[in-house]
Design a protein that fits this description.
The chain is built from 7 helices and 11 strands. It is of the alpha+beta class and 256 residues long. The chain has one domain: Jelly Rolls (Sandwich). The strands form 3 sheets. A 6-stranded antiparallel beta sheet has the order 1-9-6-11-3-2. Strand 4 and strand 5 form a beta hairpin.
């Protein structure tokens, strides 16, 4: 199903989309039970076959959450986002990594970063998106001011000037402090992004899926287990089956 021209234009200009109420109340209630169970995962036992994985994982509280519970594979091709991912990455997009991510009370804030290089084209060539990497945040909690909000710099996926990323606040930043449980944020990983400090008593809960183009490999340590591949749907199995063994940023666009 093609996406709307408004979504296409907004993603091109901003580098992100904020999809409000993309998940139903029924879905949210079900997913929260999954999250409560997954949060109890012994990550050392999950990675007992390859302990080195732990060094490249976030585990706040669980990286490779699809391996912890294959039901989380539904977020690879959720109908609220699959048409967008097909538009921005191509119909045969692939998995890069996946995490269950909590921003706990007292979190000091993260550092500005991006997953792929910015490019003046905004990762559009000949009228088509050629994004190397797109991330999806499924928001399971409300997030208001001073509650550890996610923050981006809109348009920074096209930035050509150096940016002082040691600053907490950057010009033109967008703070997602008006989020409701069930919202979904989709963004180009060329976009500068960060997590704000969380001085509140609330924990922000996010299911994160990171996807790339057909030739994308998984981030080191995120290749799914064989039993996971056997447990998911054929479509999800295709997304999780990477032709390239490890992630490397593709040279999609000419320099300049």
């Amino acid at each position: 199903m093609p996406i709307s021209q408004d979504h296409r234009l907004a993603f091109d200009i901003q580098g992100y989309l904020h999809l409000r109420a993309a998940l139903t109340d029924t879905e949210i209630a079900e997913y929260r039970t999954w999250v409560d169970n997954a949060a109890q995962t012994d990550v050392h036992a999950l990675n007992v076959d390859e302990p080195e994985r732990l060094k490249s994982h976030i585990n706040r509280p669980v990286s490779r959450v699809i391996d912890a519970d294959p039901r989380f594979a539904c977020f690879l091709d959720h109908p609220a986002v699959e048409p967008l991912l097909a538009e921005f990455l191509g119909a045969e997009y692939r998995h890069i990594d996946n995490d269950l991510y909590f921003t706990h009370p007292g979190f000091d804030g993260g550092v500005w970063h991006r997953g792929v290089q910015a490019h003046p084209s905004g990762h559009v060539m000949d009228g088509e998106f050629v994004c190397p990497m797109v991330k999806v945040f499924y928001c399971l909690t409300d997030v208001g001011p001073d509650e550890g909000a996610f923050v981006v710099v809109p348009g920074s996926h096209k930035a050509v000037f150096e940016i002082d990323m040691d600053r907490c606040d950057l010009p033109g930043q967008k703070i997602f402090d008006d989020v409701r449980a069930g919202d979904v944020i989709v963004f180009d990983e060329g976009l500068l992004h960060n997590g704000r400090p969380n001085p509140s008593t609330k924990t922000r809960q996010t299911i994160i899926m990171n996807l790339g183009r057909q030739d994308a490999g998984p981030w080191p340590g995120y290749a799914p287990k064989p039993e996971t591949l056997a447990a998911v749907s054929p479509r999800q199995r295709a997304i999780l089956t990477n032709a390239t063994p490890v992630w490397a940023e593709p040279d999609l666009l000419p320099a300049g």
